[in-house]
Amino acid sequence: MYRVQTKDPVAPQTAEVFTRGIYFATEDITTLPAQLETIDSHTSRLTIYEGRYHQVKRMFGHLRNEVVGLHREKVGQLSLGI
After folding, report:
1. pTM for this prediction
2. Fewer CB within 10 Å, N side or C side of the chain?
3. How far apart are alpha carbons 80 and 29 in whole angstroms?
4. Which pLDDT band holds residue 73 (cuts at 50, 70, 90)?
5. Distance of alpha carbon 16 from alpha carbon 33, whole angstroms
6. Collapsed DSSP state (helix, strand, coil) of residue 16
7. What is d(CA 9, CA 38) in angstroms, rounded to the nearest whole number?
8. What is the C-alpha to C-alpha distance for residues 43 and 25, in angstroms, rounded to an integer?
């Protein structure tokens, strides 16, 4: 689970797009469904179920929203603190 801060506000449809998975043509893969919880306009909590190279930044980048802050809060059931 990650806390993500973005340059621009998170669009309302972002959670739906992440739930469907995102296709990365350069690798010919589609991400597993992810869960997005909005904290405020620029901050979200994202749960992913795989760990591809810079996956969180690439997912938001796919929607043209730059990640400016990224903190991993949990690995499985292990909480990493803030």
Report:
1. 0.87
2. C
3. 29
4. confident
5. 9
6. helix
7. 10
8. 27
In the block, residue with structure tokens 């506000």 = 9
- DSSP letters for 5-53: EESSPPPTTHHHHHHH--EETTTTEEPPP-EEEEEETTEEEEE-SS--T
The token pair at 36 is 């997005």
From 30, 67, 62, 63, select the one nearest 49 (Cα to Cα).
Answer: 30
pLDDT tens, 30-53?
Answer: 999 999 999 999 999 999 998 888
How big is the chain, counted in residues?
82
Domain 2-77, CATH class in plain words: alpha beta
Amino acid at 80: L
